[in-house]
Design brief:
about 250 residues, mainly alpha, 2 domains
């Protein structure tokens, strides 16, 4: 394992801890970068030893040392999830692509969790992710920048158009602006050729999600809210790692 793989792997638990903070604070409009880590229940500022990814949570039994309220699974889940994404990237892509792939995976992970929990896709995540997707081809394959720019434009126009048509037919919103911006960011990474497969995977995942919800006893109607962002993120991740489906 070389440094291009080792550094993202070592950073992953700490990035996962930051992702958990984003998931909790961004939807609340709370400060993220300039606020010190504190207990979500008693607001006690946490010490460095209470912030060691995974180990601190396990040592404290999943409870705040000060107020003994449950810390919640979101923190260790994000920390472990960030590690799993890097290990997956190491197995699936060439070593020199692991750092960028890890960043993509972490960004998609954060977006998916926030949309799943709060039905929003923050621009502060999707827009930088899309910009990075446009900048990286300049270093790797400059002639392909047109394909990636076309992917970003097509991704936005496609979902925005579907959303407008849905509103005209049904009289209510079905696909949000955030989903369109997210698909634009995804298109910047996978280029326009990858978008059909992303949408295919996302639609299949959405169908499985709805089916499992029904089996679990949830009543699913035409007006039921189901987040589409997590499914788009899954589709983007699979297409980035393994490429789009082909007919040949």
């Amino acid at each position: 394992m070389d440094l291009t793989q080792l550094i993202p792997l070592l950073a992953a638990p700490f990035v996962g801890s930051f992702i958990a903070t984003l998931v909790i604070r961004l939807p609340q409009g709370a400060p993220v970068l300039w606020a010190r880590s504190a207990c979500d229940h008693c607001a006690t500022v946490l010490r460095p030893l209470e912030l060691v990814p995974i180990l601190s949570w396990a040592a404290l039994g999943g409870r705040c040392r000060h107020c003994r309220q449950p810390i919640g699974w979101i923190h260790p889940a994000c920390e472990l999830g960030a590690v799993v994404l890097v290990l997956w990237a190491i197995l699936a892509v060439p070593g020199e692509l692991v750092p960028a792939t890890a960043v993509l995976g972490w960004g998609l992970f954060a977006v998916a969790l926030i949309d799943q929990r709060h039905f929003i896709i923050p621009n502060v995540l999707s827009l930088p992710l899309g910009l990075l997707g446009l900048l990286l081809p300049l270093a790797w394959d400059p002639p392909s920048i047109g394909e990636h720019a076309a992917g970003a434009l097509l991704g936005y126009v496609l979902l925005r158009g579907i959303g407008l048509v849905y509103r005209l037919i049904r009289g209510r919103s079905g696909i949000g602006e955030g989903d369109a911006r997210l698909l634009a960011a995804i298109g910047a990474w996978v280029a326009w050729e990858g978008l059909p497969t992303v949408l295919l995977y996302a639609s299949a995942a959405g169908l499985v999600h709805a089916t499992m919800a029904r089996i679990g006893g949830r009543e699913i109607r035409g007006t039921s809210r189901l987040p589409f962002g997590p499914h788009l993120c899954l589709g983007a991740w699979l297409v980035w790692l393994y490429g789009p489906l082909t007919l040949g």
